[in-house]
Amino acid sequence: MERFKIVKDLQKIDIDIERDELKFHQKRVLVSKSFTFDAAHHLHCYEGKCKTLHGHTYEVIFGVSGYPNEIGLVIDFGDIKKIWKDQIEIHLDHQYLNQSLPKMNTTAENMVVWIFEQMDQFLNELNQNELRVEFVKLYETPTSYAEARREWM
Length: 153
Prior knowledge:
Elements: E1 29-41, E2 54-66, H1 77-88, E3 95-96, H2 97-100, H3 108-126, E4 132-141, E5 144-149
Parallel strand pairs: 1-3
Antiparallel strand pairs: 1-2, 2-4, 4-5
């Protein structure tokens, strides 16, 4: 029994598949992309280890939904990465968060809402495929995270 097939002929556009077949459906789909960044902070009015300056390797996960375009993409993962790198990460990575973010106590709960609002703003500027941020998760440690969801905003 043959388990693996060697592809001999790659599918060709306009010969093996028509352009109007590239978009399989018209349903809203959620895509996710995650990033990490390193930053330092401390918490005000908090009695515990986090009241002193310390750092984390944070992980942020974005859930973005929209409708597929004519080739079946909701959003190119590279576009999410570009917004992250150019507009959001610059305020976070290797920063002292108490100074680089707007005035707030730099809790995961406050930061995740700020990150959500930033991504939502820049996705709206793309104005394509009815894109919207559905959720953002911000992991402060591998087992502790805060989450902001569209329905809570």
